[in-house]
Amino acid sequence: MQRRISIKFRAVHTRVHISLFSLVVAPPPTRTHAPSSPSQRLPSSPTESQSQQLPQFPRPRRSSTFHPAIMAVVMEGEEFQHILRVLNTNIEGRQKVMYALTSIKGVGRRFSNLVLKKADVDLAKRAGSLSNEEIDRIVTIIQNPRQFKIPDYFLNRQRDFKDGKTSQLIANQLDFKMREDLDRLRKIRSHRGMRHYFGLRVRGQHTKTTGRRGRTVGVSKKKA
Prior knowledge:
Layout: E1 3-5, E2 8-11, E3 16-19, E4 23-25, H1 46-52, E5 83-86, E6 89-92, H2 97-100, H3 109-118, H4 132-143, H5 172-187, H6 191-198
Antiparallel strand pairs: 1-4, 2-3, 5-6
């Protein structure tokens, strides 16, 4: 038996009657014939239905925090060091050597990459798995880069003011030289030195809105 449904909408503000077409809803078909083959026959018991089902394995779920660096396999043996002390700096042992050396002040990624190639150390190696001989070679090359034919444009101290030499400064040496340069600029009362002395921007930046410090003057309204 079929049922006939009619739907009507009324718009109040326009006073217009809208009638939609009639919908014919048919009842779902009922199955009266018997299965034609034994394969279409319904299972007679729950055990039979379970035996016919295929085994379902759990689908692996990928975590939202997946990252190759997190999933990296680190071989931690008895000789693995989690923290190394190199040139008065603590180095993370679980990082790769090239990136771990950048925690030393004055050593960048390009310079550390070249140092490791000169020292014949694998770039994919973890810092904690370095041997004492490899660490000694790395330290020697960092302290004396020109002896190992590293170009001068890789070094961070170009043509020193006093002796005119090009060298690589690291850790405390770099801090001492920077402090010495600023003191020299203040003594000769150069523009850069005086800007450093007063704590202002040195490289030509605008200072109207940025770099402001000190107490602000409040604005008061006039009484009517």
